[in-house]
Known about the structure:
It is built from 23 helices and 31 strands. The chain is α/β, with parallel strands linked by helices. It folds into 4 domains: about 25-120 and about 125-185 and about 335-345 and about 390-450, Rossmann fold (3-Layer(aba) Sandwich); about 185-320 and about 460-495, Response regulator (Rossmann fold), CATH 3.40.50; about 510-560, GPCR, family 3, nine cysteines domain (Tumor Necrosis Factor Receptor, subunit A, domain 2, Ribbon); about 570-875, Rhodopsin 7-helix transmembrane proteins (Rhopdopsin 7-helix transmembrane proteins), CATH 1.20.1070. An 8-stranded mixed beta sheet has the order 10-9-11-12-13-18-19-20, with helices on both faces. The chain has a 6-stranded mixed beta sheet with strand order 1-5-2-6-7-8, sandwiched between helices. The protein has a 3-stranded mixed beta sheet with strand order 27-29-28. The longest helix has about 35 residues, at about 635-670. The chain starts with about 25 loop residues before the first strand and ends in a 19-residue tail after the last strand.
Amino acid sequence: RHREREGETERKLIVHLWPGHTHLNSIRIDGDISLGGLFPVHARGHDGKPCGELKKEKGIHRLEAMLFALDRINNDNNLLPNITLGARILDTCSRDTHALEQSLTFVQALIEKDGTDVKCLGGGAPIITKPERVVGVIGASSSSVSIMVANILRLFKIPQVSYASTAPELSDNTRYDFFSRVVPPDTYQAQAMVDIVKYMRWNYVSTVASEGNYGESGVDAFIQKSREDGGVCISQSVKIPREPKQGEFDKVIRRLRENPNARVVILFANEDDIRRLLHAAKKANQTGHFIWVGSDSWGSKISPVVQQEEMAEGAVTILPKRQSIRGFDRYFISRTLENNRRNIWFAEFWENNFNCKLSRHAVKKGSGLKKCTNQERIGKDSQYEQEGKVQFVIDAVYAMAHALHNMHQELCPGKVGLCAKMDPINGTHLLKHIRRLNFSGIAGNPVLFNENGDAPGRYEIYQYQIRNRTAEYKIIGHWADQLHLNVRSMQWPGGVRQIPSSICSQPCRPGERKKIVKGIPCCWHCERCDGYQYQADTYTCKMCHFDLRPNENHTGCVPIPIVKLEWSSPWAVIPVFVAVIGIMATLFVVVTFVRYNDTPIVKASGRELSYVLLTGIFLCYATTFLMISAPDVVICSLRRIFLGLGMSISYAALLTKTNRIYRIFEQGSMSVSAPKFISPASQLVITFTLASVQLVGVCIWFVVDPSKAIIDYEDQRTSNPALARGVLKCDISDLSLICLLGYSMLLMVTCTVYAIKTRGVPETFNEAKPIGFTMYTTCIIWLAFIPIFFGTSQSTEKMYIQTTTLTISVSLSASVSLGLLYMPKVYVVLFHPEQNVPKRTRTLKAVVTAATMSNKFNPKAGLRPNGEAKTELCESLETQCKSKNANEESFD
Length: 892
């Protein structure tokens, strides 16, 4: 493999058979494979000249970075072994038209004639030196130059990798399909700048762009991104002409001052325009007013801010993330006129850098120049700071080398040097390998490309600060898809730490929406979100969800507090107190009856039905605790079961008793035979059958509509959201409650009817009249319940009133039954035991006779019975009723 020693490539004058052109301003380095290079060695020329003054950093530093990279690659045995990379490097002179003319050199080998039709005067064949074939191009720097050159290179399928062109339009893969770049496009930079502006809460900014692809595309990308993200408006968009006239920058400053609230200025301008713009602002005495946000063309450069540091103080600038390459520093400061003859512009750089002349004749008296001694040293006798794009130039060269290496491994496996398949090199195939790259660059950062040939966006954010009269660029953050900013390290003009404002209207207070002023999207009026509305976004008030209410400042919704009947509430204390007293009284009666179970009074009361009735009364009282307990599936299920069951059992037992009495006296008026189903067992069957209807109905209800607890937000939804409450309750509507209690009411009404019918039985007949009084009182209670319960359906206290009314009504019904039917018996048993003795038994015949005589002699026997013997009908099988003859059937 051919290896070049560093600095040994001779400076050559290249003359090609290109009609009408002689290329003097180029560097040629021989190699097996040649790469093209485009660098702005000189600035744009004036007065008809294509090139102007030398650009030390952007030109020479970047050019030398390519040479440095070629030396490293050619000395690397692992990258393109036995293959030497050469180069053809051109000066674009910072002008797109000149660059286009120069870049024709790269396609000469593809369109040159072979010369077979040319004959010398002597008849012999001419000696022709064919131009080398360029397989790929590194560059250019300016986006406008890259765009112009890319249009030519794509025609000949020559891949191009730029180290500095960031215009967004170069991402168009349909127009610039052979263009790639190791720097991110300005769309990322624009997004980063939008993120900075939004992070600082600046919503009213101006933009300034240098005329051309870079400036105009950058500002367009910023405006587009700001519109997509929202929240940022453009006050002024000013463009600096390509050839600005005198006073042009003063005019720009005057336009920027038209809207004093828009203090932030977004800059996509070249460094010369930035310098002149800052100077114009300084002349207009605007120091400290404008807040500059500069693109990577400003970056961390010193030249735009020299002698106008105070005007630039506080400027926020952005630069692709980079690192200083120490190896290049060692390489560059070691360059001399002797060891760097391959760079044809290095002598001009030497004179410019050391302010001397190589030729004694060029030194004029009084010019202040001296003759160069060739003993000067870079970094020692002159200032040196590595240019910001050096890293990317090296990465671009390495990207081309890695792509060629991968292509060689694919097409020439195991072969030394180039093979036939790589002669010539197919540009389309090479482009495919470029787009597939993913390797670590010179600074350790990954080098890769997306489908459009763009590198990922990674930026460092700087701020120009003055501390202790020393100005410097300080890194304050970075951006890689997301912004990371250290606001605490920022400093604004005058040493102020507080972020300056750049807004049209003051922000609305929390809970207020912005009503945009027509035609001025960054200016607004503030309107309060009221009622159940909250501030959904900057411009909208929305209603909270039905289970939510706005928070105190209407910036969001919070859950509506959930309430239920608490045990400590007065609405619960009273029903619970009544229920506890009732349960204690019921248990007392039960214990008394059990204790005196065999006494005549207990027997005469019908023990079986009495215990059933007492069970129903107990359940009525116990229902109070279910109604006050916190609702859940279990509690709601138990409410359905026991709310109606207790009353159904009670009224079923009472109905069975009254029906039995009625049938006995009704039968007695027509026959001496005993009615059917009047035995205790029959009475229990009838009672449980009647009560089971309630259970069957509840079971059907469970199947059709399973129990569940719900939160009713309409029950206590007030006009004032602060007073709104959600009521935790069982899913039982008022109609369902009526249906649940309806059967019990039916039993109660039926029992009342029978009580009325049996009101005329003998006075001493057990329980007929107490049952009647019980039912009359119960009816009055429930008649009072209905208007109270349904009349409060619209009240905010509905839950408390209805629950308390229902539980007290049930407890009072139970208390009436307990008090009228059993307390007199308990009183006799405990305090008048002398009355708790057997009375003379009366046979069924005597009962029938009494009933018959009562009906015969007194038609109004229902009002006051007459002819009643002073005997008592035994109503219990346990009462020892002795028949006097076998034909008499004792009735229990």
